[in-house]
Design brief:
The chain has one domain: Porin. The protein is mainly beta. Homotrimer. It comes from Herbaspirillum lusitanum.
Length: 402
């Protein structure tokens, strides 16, 4: 009898302990038909492009999230998340199996601390106040080739601390180890920010900077803790600066206001590449050069002579039954070393979502991007418009969360 009682008590204790832990499998699957006009083919020639595109609304992903209640208000948690492409089944984030996020940490009365690979606080501010993440495929290039991190960039080796919420106020501090023997600054990154929400109003800011990693020979592979630096010429060439020099600085400020079913949003980003110092001419050579690779070429967003960028993003969402209507104007201005005129990109983006269920929606987006005194980077990764200064794009698809 005693053995039976003890066994029952043991099983009960096991059941209680087991109930304090949970692991969730979750994900997003999204794809649609994409159309882009005036994609460069050869020389001045362009052609329309249509295809099945993955990750139009947001990136498809598969993740695992676990939480254990340790008692006294303290919890242990982990997140392991990988991105993939629906059209061909490939891993995203340059083939990293769990490249979107791998963190483990503790949370309690003193806040949350996480360790691993993840996005920094600029992503939180952008999600709250920018229109970029709401119409993802058509906004990254006009946001300085995502130099300001508005559509999400990640850092490795990160310590990430988030304070408790004090009446709507919350702050963040993040540090990425460069992990270079003999130099704490080589490949290091640092970020901080804060946000305040009260009823219909919200306002917040974030700062991020990264330092150049060590390079070998003529290699341009990004080995910094800041993995977003790969798209920025100032962080990813052997010719500019030395290992440990600050290669990018980002400041982001945003706010929103709800008026019933209408939400107004605004966000401003300032991006500097301190190591950019050489001129590539007084103006783009449109007569003989038709494109320039964003993030590496001259007179391009984040390119080899782009020392500074300012991005202005304003828009609105309107909820009407199962419909959500979205619109934004994004204007970015670029300082090019040796050029008197600032480069300009202006995008008009409109979208609509129709909710089929709690987990599934249909979406449509249309956009126009115009460039002045710089090369047009194109609205999507499917190609720039070459000698033409303008491009249009359309996306129609479905998204399911599980």
């Amino acid at each position: 009898m005693k053995k039976s009682v003890l066994a029952l008590l043991g099983l009960s204790a096991f059941g209680v302990a087991h109930a304090q832990s949970s692991v969730t499998i979750y994900g997003v699957a999204t794809a649609g038909i994409g159309y882009v006009d005036k994609v460069v083919t050869t020389g001045r020639n362009t052609g329309n492009r249509i295809g099945l595109d993955s990750g139009q609304y947001t990136q498809s992903r598969l993740g695992f999230r676990g939480v254990e209640d340790l008692g006294g208000g303290l919890k242990a948690d982990f997140v392991i998340e990988g991105g993939f492409t629906m059209d061909n089944g490939a891993s995203a984030q340059n083939g990293a199996t769990f490249g979107r996020r791998t963190t483990i940490g503790l949370s309690g009365a003193l806040g949350t601390i996480e360790m691993g690979r993840r996005k920094d606080y600029t992503d939180f501010i952008a999600n709250q106040y920018s229109t970029a993440s709401r119409m993802l495929p058509f906004t990254g290039k006009v946001h300085g080739n995502n130099m300001d991190r508005a559509t999400g960039e990640r850092a490795n080796n990160m310590l990430y601390y988030l304070t408790p919420n004090f009446g709507g106020f919350q702050a963040n501090l993040a540090y990425g180890f460069g992990e270079q023997a003999g130099s704490a600054t080589t490949g290091q990154s640092l970020g901080f920010g804060a946000n305040y929400e009260n009823g219909p109003f919200g306002i917040g800011f974030a700062y991020w900077q990264s330092k150049k990693a060590a390079t070998v020979g003529s290699a341009t592979t990004n080995t910094s803790s800041d993995q977003g630096a790969s798209s920025n010429a100032g962080c990813n060439t052997t010719a500019l600066g030395n290992a440990g020099d600050t290669c990018i600085k980002v400041f982001m400020l945003g706010a929103n206001y709800d008026i019933g079913a209408l939400t107004l949003r605004g966000e401003w980003s300032n991006v500097k590449q301190p190591l950019i110092n050489a001129s590539s001419g007084a103006a783009p050579n449109f007569a003989t050069t038709f494109t320039s690779t964003a993030g590496s070429g001259a007179f391009s967003a984040g390119g080899i002579n782009n020392s500074k960028a300012n991005i202005f993003d304003v828009g609105a969402d309107y909820k009407m039954g199962a419909w959500l209507f979205k619109g934004s104007v994004i204007h970015s201005r670029y300082d090019f070393v040796g050029a008197s005129n600032k480069g300009k990109l202006t995008a008009l983006v409109l979208g609509a979502d129709y909710t089929l269920s709690k987990r599934t929606l249909l979406y449509g987006m249309v956009a126009n991007l115009r460039a002045s005194d710089m090369y047009n980077p194109g609205l999507t990764s499917n190609g720039a418009p070459g000698a033409d200064s303008a491009q249009n794009a359309l996306a129609l698809g479905i998204m399911h969360r599980f």
